[in-house]
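Hey L., structure's done. Input below.
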Amino acid sequence: MKKVSFLLICIAFLFSSCALHSGLTTNLNNHTTEVVLSKNNFKVIASVQGESHATYVFGFGGLSKKAMIAEARVNMLSKANMIGSSKAIINETVEIKNSLFPFVRRYTVIVSGHVVEFTE
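Output:
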């Protein structure tokens, strides 16, 4: 009976996982455009987000964190539909989820923001 319970505990450990979440609080944006939102000449029209995933097995595979952030940002911008209009993205946030399995690590990067449209 002890061997069966030990075996079940080992199987449960192998199929379990842990997840860590973190938000990047440093300014990773290197934009040179400055938008001042002090007047009532804009409206928030949408909330958008983009994701990027990478899987590492025994520490090998996937993208670097900077490349994952860039890929997630591209996905977010493609959903924002900003081309040919007077829109901007504000309140950009980068979140990283780190899921741990035995011998496998999975990263998910989520970049989100609000789309504002200028009325004047």
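Residues 21 and 83 are 32 Å apart (CA to CA). Residues 18-118 form a domain with the Translation Initiation Factor IF3 fold (CATH 3.30.110.70).

-- N.
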